[in-house]
Specification:
Length: 277
């Protein structure tokens, strides 16, 4: 693995040869520091029995690091034809049989159907589609070994936020309900080409064997979205449109959404599901 990795051309050379200037409309910010891509790949742990699905490989900085880390197989989903040509020209021959490149929009992919288990998703996610992608994956969280993802720091802060903090909200609850969340490390914007306007953060999400508390996805999402839609209002008012009472779930009507734990929201979701059954 390491020999092929060392013999590959520098990423900047690949970008120049294949005219891979980052395109803003595709949300492209390329991470070219191989020390950082290697650190991200190592964060995922032992990949020798895992198929890694990567979203938006670009010129392949993280892709080559995942392969060098010993991934059993890598499936890279890329919508930019320029990047696909570049990856096929220099990376596919070096890792014949281990790397598959799929041209397509990540938002339209069935990621479970792409590879047999165990499967993991790793990506430097385009900021403009990061949250919709994550929500889609969470719905099938237990079909994955884990997720090693890079977000803008603001989104990462929301994913890992605790109750009674400004960042705590829908994304915090849905992620922590289904996964163990670990904030790994920050990456300075100057490490990217071109530099984004914000700092980035690598996050690990490990699906729980079962959700933190019993509830259905639809009921949980509805209750959380409704409660945080009127964030500063007491539950007495914010849950009124759902026809449920916080008191019936053993909670105080005077509490606000940001004060509730994930388990508290699951109680409300079960109450709402029972009412609408």
């Amino acid at each position: 693995m390491t020999q092929e990795f060392d013999n590959l051309p520098p990423l900047r050379e690949i970008i120049t040869q294949h005219d891979l200037a980052a395109q803003k409309q595709l949300g492209q910010n390329f991470l070219l520091d191989l020390n950082l891509t290697g650190r991200i790949a190592r964060t995922a742990g032992n990949l020798s029995n895992t198929t890694v699905i990567e979203v938006g490989p670009g010129p392949g900085g993280l892709t080559r690091a995942i392969l060098a880390q010993g991934a059993k197989r890598v499936i890279a989903v890329e919508r930019d034809p320029r990047c696909i040509l570049a990856l096929n020209a220099y990376l596919s021959p070096a890792y014949a049989g281990q790397l598959e490149i799929i041209e397509g929009d990540a938002l339209e992919q069935d990621f479970v159907a792409l590879a047999p288990a165990p499967r993991r998703i790793m990506a430097n996610l385009p900021y403009n589609i990061a949250t919709p992608l994550l929500i889609g994956w969470l719905k099938k969280a237990q079909d994955f070994e884990g997720f090693t993802l890079m977000f803008q720091k603001e989104v990462a802060d929301r994913i890992g936020a605790k109750p009674r903090t400004k960042a705590y909200g829908r994304l915090s609850i849905m992620c922590q309900w289904l996964c163990e969340v670990r904030i790994e490390f920050n990456i300075d914007k100057r490490a990217f080409t071109p530099p984004p306007k914000v700092q980035s953060t690598v996050v690990s999400l490990t699906p729980r064997p079962k959700p933190l508390a019993p509830a259905t996805w639809n009921a949980m999402e509805k209750v959380v979205a409704t409660a945080f839609g009127q964030r500063r209002k007491m539950l007495r008012q914010s849950l009124k449109s759902l026809g449920i009472s916080a008191q019936d779930a053993g909670l105080k009507e005077t509490q606000r959404a940001e004060e509730l734990s994930v388990e508290d929201f699951a109680k409300l979701a079960r109450l709402y599901a029972a009412k609408t059954a």
